[in-house]
Amino acid sequence: MNKEQLEQIANGMVADGKGILAADESTGTIKKRFDQINTESTDDSRRDYRELLFRSEDAMSNWISGVILFDETIRQKAKDGTPLVDLITAAGSIPGIKVDAGAQDLAQSPGEKVTEGLDGLRGRFQEYYQLGARFAKWRAVINIADHLPSQYCLNANAHALARYAALAQENNIVPIVEPEVIMDGPHSIERCFEVTEAALNALYDALYEQRVFLEGTILKPNMVISGTENTNRANIDQVAEQTVFCLKRTVPSAVPGICFLSGGQSEEEATAHLSAMNANFDMPWKLSFSYGRALQQSALQAWLGKEENVAAAQSAFNHRAKMNGLAAKGEWQATMEKAA
Ligand code: 13P
Question: Does the structure show a pLDDT above 90 at 295?
């Protein structure tokens, strides 16, 4: 393990005013996104869509520090034969790879999930490094219900995240650790706080036990936010404040950066929350984004699977990336959306 290299990559992932594009939708998930725009999901259509994102000059050179890829994409070539990975590095951005194999039912605990994918992971990391990946992602899924999550679920997921992180670092790949507390449900922001705090405590205990080098990691958490079906939703300032309080209680200051998932928030909400945190609080780590849907929604809607819409889709993506890059510095204003 080369600690200096890991630290350098991790710091690059949270360079000033930059964040991560999560373009690692599995084949099943990207099909769902394409269904919404009546576009068939094929090798070529997935390639065309991702190629247009990675060729978005303004976004990729100025606001996107790294891109999380799916296994198919890290091996794919652009229409002109250039490996997609080379488009990312040519823009000065860092290629990353999703390595988990998805969440499966947790044995003996109805309603809960555990993420699989540890078998053979050491060899896969070696191959992904050769293919250009310098960081990786593993996502755990934690559901909130009246009596969930159980401590068993939090511990099982934290253990897997730590095993993954230690193996990634052994191969000089920076692990993004993502314990996602799911937004779905009628729960309050207080309940989200309690569960997120417990999940992050379990995670950092496991990372310590398994000797993970924190300076060479990035945390990808949910924000502390009201459940989607909650009728008395917390506002932007409350979400910003509760999220920062929760992270300060649980995340060691040795961690260089925290990049949020968007988790079903609208594009503008995800941007507004991030900007409010950076504008109003002093923190020991960089706070940025690693959004999937909140960076891609408008671009997908502009593209509609049509070649003639590529420029419009790129301009939508450039705009979203810029808004989030400004939010990572606490400099976003709602008026900037209207001006665009
Ligand atoms: P969303 O921002 O759409 O939640 O996706 C981020 C991600 O990579 C989830 O693992």
Answer: yes
Asked if 309 contacts 299 with a C-beta cutoff of 8 angstroms, the reply is no
- The yes-or-no answer on residue 178 being catalytic is yes
Please provide the DSSP assignment of 31-75 as one string: HHHHHTTT----HHHHHHHHHHHHT-HHIIIIIEEEEEE-HHHHT
Atom of ligand 1 nearest to the CA of 294: 2
Burial per residue of 268-280, b for 16 or more beta-carbon CB atoms within 10 angstroms, e otherwise: ebbbbbbbbbbee
pLDDT of residue 9: 98
pLDDT, one tens digit per residue, over 16-71 is 999 999 999 999 999 999 999 999 999 999 999 999 999 999 999 999 999 999 99
Q: How far is the CA of 83 from the centre of ligand 1 (A)?
A: 24
Please list, in sequence order, all residues whose beta carbon lies within 8 angstroms of the beta carbon of residue 80, skipping any fewer than 6 positions away: none
Q: Which domains does the chain have, with CATH numbers?
A: 3-339 (3.20.20.70)
